[in-house]
UniProtKB/TrEMBL annotation:
<dbReference type="Pfam" id="PF00483">
    <property type="entry name" value="NTP_transferase"/>
</dbReference>
<dbReference type="InterPro" id="IPR050065">
    <property type="entry name" value="GlmU-like"/>
</dbReference>
<dbReference type="GO" id="GO:0016779">
    <property type="term" value="F:nucleotidyltransferase activity"/>
</dbReference>
<feature type="domain" description="Nucleotidyl transferase">
    <location>
        <begin position="8"/>
        <end position="237"/>
    </location>
</feature>
<protein>
    <submittedName>
        <fullName>Nucleotidyltransferase family protein</fullName>
    </submittedName>
</protein>
<dbReference type="InterPro" id="IPR005835">
    <property type="entry name" value="NTP_transferase_dom"/>
</dbReference>
<keyword id="KW-0548">Nucleotidyltransferase</keyword>
<dbReference type="InterPro" id="IPR029044">
    <property type="entry name" value="Nucleotide-diphossugar_trans"/>
</dbReference>
<keyword id="KW-0808">Transferase</keyword>
Amino acid sequence: MGVAVKMAMLLAAGLGKRLRPITDSVPKPLVPVAGRTMLDRSLDIVEEAGIRRAVVNIHYLGDQVVAHCERRGHPDVMISDESDKILETGGGVVKALPMLGPEPFALLNADTFWYEWGRPNLPAMIERFDPKRMDILLMLCPLADTTGHPGGTDFFMDSDGRLRRATDKSHPDGLLYAGATIYNPTIFHGASAEPHSLNVYYDRAIADGRLFGHLMSDAHWFTVGTPDALPLAERKLAELGATSRD
């Protein structure tokens, strides 16, 4: 159990429509939260996990994302350009596969992040990922450990860590997808770089008993989907004692 994850991908191509008017001139991943962009917060997590290379996909105001990544020293960032056509989450990953390589890789949302004060969660996920049993390992959290999420939960997890969809999204045992995943790239064999959702692969893995969850620990998860969510996130970070570099 445990693999050497050397690559990460950050999904940064979204339009950020719900965050307008903030995103009229700035792509959502570059919106600062308590003095640090959401993209940098996710890249910090990747860097601190010891992953030295990352792929960032771009579409809306992509030149700003490229320029921002060029100013950052680590990790080494490669760009997957979707300027001509946004490919959604699944198509974006498939397009980037030649850069990600044949080994398991990490995937993070560039417009959500988490603040942690205990053992880092991404290295714990990497250590736990077992390609013999798992196609996908998702980081999950209870709703109580989130700020800015307006909806319900996504999955139920059994005692072995296997996941199934949460049909009752208000059930107290439900867990929310927390924006980080480890993938075995073999599951994308034969897929095309056309617009589609990663949910396709979740459902296949559920059917095969190969979708697993990692419960986030000693951490709080943030999503900033609307302008009203921004001050909520900054207030919670201050409450947690986070600095601008955190």
